[in-house]
UniProtKB/TrEMBL annotation:
Protein name, UniProt field: AtzE family amidohydrolase
Alphabetical list of Pfam families matching this protein: Amidase
Keywords recorded for this protein, A-Z: Hydrolase
The keyword Hydrolase appears for this protein: yes
Domain Amidase, chain residue ranges per copy: 24-425
Origin: domain of life: Bacteria
Species this chain originates from: Acetobacter syzygii
Regions crossing the membrane: none
InterPro entries on file: Amidase, Amidase_dom, AS_sf, Carboxybiuret_hydro_AtzE
Length: 450
């Protein structure tokens, strides 16, 4: 059965002749047509091209050619990655008349070279500015675990497509939490790699000094395999001994009871007692917000001067506010960033992996989009990044893993390491998976049959 099958299972079935790539692709397209109407993750299907590429994989197999590692595996892309011959909209109608992309985005090209086949573009907050994937032009992406709730954003379509079993692998971007927030709310694996490790060419920018390209997967093995393909690196041995610590202070406040209990279970399993704290975390969050606003506003200001009416009003207002920030504010935020980065990097001289919550609670309701912050209801859209935004500043790799056995809708955990230390993240994630504490959250039976 293709739905919920991992990328590695699909690739192995095709390579062994158990299934043809064409039959896999037909099943994937049928699944999208059947299930996506209730969640709204897909904005464009490349059905004809995908079938042609699947037939080409089968032809190579018939000629007894050696197949690349992901031959025939379907994947989707957040709708800001260039797909050759397709207009890249970045979730907006503002770009609808730009020329089609002349070539694939760099990481799309690397996945294609590994045999994977792009099937769809996926919904997002307009120009990646938001945590909700509530798009005025392309609609709302709903959480597959409960369609009355948020999928998170801005890469919500990418996370929801994996959670719903439509695709085993999808691409996203993360500036202030746009992979980590939806991965947490949708109960899938997500990775924001080290800043600059994966090429950003062909990904429509938001914040030049904070944007990171990454991905979602249905399994940890798929997450790791795709990472190394996109990074053009070979897997390192996963370290078996890791110094691990749990972040406290800012990261221990406002947790839902279920999330606090889940983090305690993880810490008990790892034998952790006590916590460590990052200095001036509220300022780090504010600096990340200001840098994003200023860089995004400056990028869009020339177009806002001519076609402001074509923007989603909420996006337009935030971009304009960012463009009007004084230069001195931006400079101060970047100065703080340099100091904060030094403080965080120094911490990794004593520890290999930090543990932190991803989002403080389960997915908020769409018609009541609030969460509890400091004991009071607060806007979910403004605060879902409470724990992800501070960790964006230092350029660290962060793996978001889905927690199991919480008796709630999905909850996620951030694993954080020093730059270039993704192997440590995969190692700790595997340990937690093997202990039954982490893994893709299964959909309720009602949603599997929806």
């Amino acid at each position: 059965m293709t739905r919920f099958a991992s990328a590695q299972t699909i690739a192995q079935d095709i390579r062994s002749g158990k299934r043809s790539a064409a039959s896999v692709m037909q099943a994937v397209l049928a699944t999208i047509h059947q299930y996506d109407s209730s969640i709204g993750s897909v904005t464009h299907l490349f059905a004809e091209q995908a079938m042609q590429q699947a037939h080409a994989v089968d032809a190579r197999l018939a000629r007894k050619e050696e197949l690349p590692p992901l031959a025939g595996v379907p994947f989707g892309v957040k709708d800001l990655f260039d797909i050759q011959g397709h207009v890249t909209t970045a979730g907006s109608i503002v770009l609808r008349n730009v020329p089609p992309a002349a070539q694939d985005a760099a990481i799309v090209a690397r996945l294609r070279a590994a045999g994977a086949i792009p099937v769809a573009t996926l919904n997002m907050d307009e120009f990646a500015y938001g945590f909700a994937t509530d798009n005025a032009h392309y609609g709302i992406t709903r959480n597959p675990h409960d369609p009355s709730r948020m999928a998170g954003g801005s890469s919500g379509g990418s996370a929801a497509a994996v959670a719903a079993g439509l695709l085993p692998l999808t691409l996203g971007t993360d500036t202030n939490g746009s992979i980590r927030v939806p991965a947490s709310l949708c109960g899938v694996w997500g990775l924001k790699p080290t800043m600059g490790l994966l090429p950003r060419e062909g990904a429509y920018p938001f914040s030049a000094s904070l944007d990171v390209v990454g991905h979602f997967a249905s399994t940890l093995d798929d997450l790791k395999t795709a990472f190394h393909i996109m990074a053009d690196t070979s897997p390192e041995p996963e370290p078996q001994t890791l110094r691990t610590a749990c972040l406290g202070g800012w990261f221990a406040q406002n947790l839902s009871p279920a999330l606090a209990a889940a983090i305690n279970r993880v810490c008990r399993y790892l034998g952790l007692s006590g916590t460590v704290e990052l200095p001036q975390t509220p300022t780090a969050r504010a600096a990340s917000f200001l840098i994003t606003a200023a860089e995004g506003g400056t990028l869009h200001l020339p177009r806002l001067r001519s076609v402001a009416q074509d923007y989603d009003p909420a996006t337009r207002d935030r971009l304009l506010a960012g463009a009007m920030l004084p230069a001195s504010t931006y400079v101060q935020a970047q100065r703080f960033r340099r100091w904060f980065r030094g403080q965080v990097h120094a911490l990794f001289e004593q520890v290999d992996v930090l543990i932190a919550p991803a989002v403080m609670c389960e997915a908020p309701l769409l018609d009541a989009p609030t969460i509890i912050v400091d004991g009071k209801p607060a806007s979910a859209r403004a605060n879902l990044g409470l724990y992800t935004q501070p960790l964006s500043l230092p350029g660290l790799p962060v793996l978001c893993l889905p927690l199991l056995n919480t008796n709630t809708l999905p909850l996620g955990l951030q694993l954080v390491a020093a730059p270039g230390r993704e192997a440590a993240l995969f190692s700790l994630a595997r340990k937690l998976e093997q202990a039954g504490l982490a893994g893709r959250c299964p959909l309720p039976a009602t949603q599997q049959a929806a």
